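Exercise 7. Given the components listed, write out the predicted structure of the assembled complex. Treat all entries as one system.
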Amino acid sequence: MLSITELAKKYPTGTRALESVTLRIDEPQIVAIIGSSGAGKSTLIRCINRLVEPTSGRVVLNDLDVTALSRRDLRKARRRMGMIFQEYNLVERLTVMENALSGRLGYVSFWQAYRRKYPPDDISAAYELLERVGLKGYEDTRADALSGGQRQRVGIARALMQRPDLLLVDEPTASLDPKTARQIMRLLVELAHERGTPALVNIHDVALAQNHSDRIVGLSGGVVVFDGPPRDLTHQALTDIYGEEDWSSTIRKSDDDEDEEDRPRRLEGESAAG
Amino acid sequence: MTSSAYPTSWRPPKLIPNPLTRYGLLLAGVVYLAWSLNALDIDWHRVEQGIARAGNMFARMVPPDFSRWQLLGRGVLESVQMAFAASFIGMIVAIPLGVCAARNLVPTPVYLVARAVLVVSRTFHEVIIAIFFVKIFGFGPLAGVLTLVVASMSFIGKMLAEDIENMRPGQLEAIRATGASFPKMLLYAVQPQMLPRYLGVSIYRLDANIRHSTVVGIVGAGGIGQTLAASFSRYDYDFSLAILLTIMSLVFVGEFFSNWVRARLR
Amino acid sequence: MTLEEHRQRYPDVWRRFSPRQTLIRYSWYLGIVFIAVWSLSNLDITWVYFLDAHEQAADLLVRMVPPYWEFFAAIVDPLVETVHIATLGTAATFFIALPIAFLAARNTTPNAITWFIGRFILVASRSVNTVVWGLLFVAIFGPGPMAGIWSVTARSIGFVGKLIAEAIEEIDEGTVEAIEATGASRLQVMLVGVLPQVMPVIFGTIVYRWDINIRESTVLGFVGAGGIGIVLYSSINLFAWDEVAVILVAIFGVVLVSEFISAAVRKRIT
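Answer.
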């Protein structure tokens, strides 16, 4: 599905953010990318849809060589990759519905976008998606009136409105409190699994990564130093990724955090509280 | 209690700590004053006369003469119309100009050209621009409207460009990531953020244009300015005062209206 | 669920604005367009002039190039005079605008009448352009830089005064309260409580206005109030476009330098 070959990025200032990253995703799975800041996580995610231009290497999404595309074809390719951001990046003065619909911008004409006359299927899909992320009734609310967790839900909805082949998620929970962070991660993972969409997720919280992902990729110094299931994340592996540290408290304290009481509430579409 | 364990006097730190710089500046100021007044070749005798004449002039100005209110009204109407038309056109032209002058949106050559246009139109006083338009388009309000269009588009355009450059890049990134084209990106990521301030600045500019439309008339570009200049040259000071008072009220009303609308826009 | 139920639960239309809101918005748009178009059509504009305008413009450009660079020697003095007019005028503004600003600020003015007088002076000053003040002062003082200096001051008082008054109204009242509580006199309160807080704004605004005044002073000569405007006016009337080109370049240079200085100083203040 996604194949990254020897991706490298050197910034004009001389910083080598990515040395050589090779990665394959062959099935719909949640891949968490962990690593210290400066290891290249953010750059990697942005190189895939070329928001940052890689210096060398190839990115192939479902037989389409993204790195070789012209600007126009790149735009079309971006439609197939849904991106979710740490700072939510919603258009704050627009309503929740408009933000969700903006996921379809690559598919509608300028005039449809201007007059907000999206195809009926898109609109009902938006309603459905917004209900699914727990924001039913918030369609006409302005985005800047929402809490952090609510905004990220809109961000998730926007990305999924693209009906993408791949989700690129950049630190979705870094700006959220611990409880909301877990709710958002759960939502993300559920939705990705439901739709059979692979997701590449940057996370800096190792425990969160372990609990919610199918596979962990560790970056250090711009290369992949770990690639495997969460249970294989040993002390040695973490040292390779982050450096020497007392890792005993970071690994797998997860079961305490899993709030058992949250489970039944989720079925009734909780979450409007953020 | 012991005496003088602590100092008994204290002086606050001066604005400019270095005494040399401080007194140096003061001295420079005095020297400049003397030099410039000397260099200006001012006829002090005439100035003395002037102050005496001022009293005389004010006596002639009051009471203001509104008898020629039709002429006054026509001039005012022309000024207001010039201001409206120019503000409207200027607002619209400012959008592509402002977008092209924002470094984070357009390639560098486009940016440089747009910035050059902004710099040149802002450097020259609108009276100078008005003269050129008068030379090209002849006397009358057309030159005035064009002058005000240039003034408006450069003012609004510069504000717009600065606002766009100060924008948080995240929203832009997100819309680009959906595969939207440049125009759609402007529509969803740029416009909503810019709109309130853009409208506020445009309305402010409308008010300013009313003021400026009075000036371009002095060089023949239409508006009440022409009437005013004529009245001065004919020593019709009471009519001059009438015109001045009308201009003042017009500007006052315009400012009031502009503040009201901008407050409602928040 | 059935298709019908699906459509019920998840509607396939959505509008941001209710029909009424849309109507109001479009009325505003149409109203504005209407006024603009009416203004334009009502003006006494001979549209025919647009036809040969480009020829006129090209003709103008040809006559301006090459610029008559030797002329530069003759305009140095008027240029310097222009700068003097702007500088002296702005300096005088400082002394006059400051007390008026205190009168025009709600929190430092003695009573409603003084407040009104303060605001009135500022509005009157602002609503008349520098050049128009020029007409007035030339009539009083006769042609020459004196009229120019007074014109610059007359207009700048309104600009500077308004911004300072706004700054005064926005100060932290707590500081003022504390000083009042010590039993200080009105003047002392203003000196120690208010003034230091608005100092940066005062200097910043003065420098900003100086920069604008340089531009304004370039055209005061058109009404006889001194500066490079006189030379520009005569060169234009003599159709000496190559001289005009030199003057424009010189003005461009002076304005650019003054803007640079102004920006640099303001950056150091704030």
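Discussion: Chain A touches chain C through 17 residues (CB under 8 Å). Chain A has a mean pLDDT of 86.
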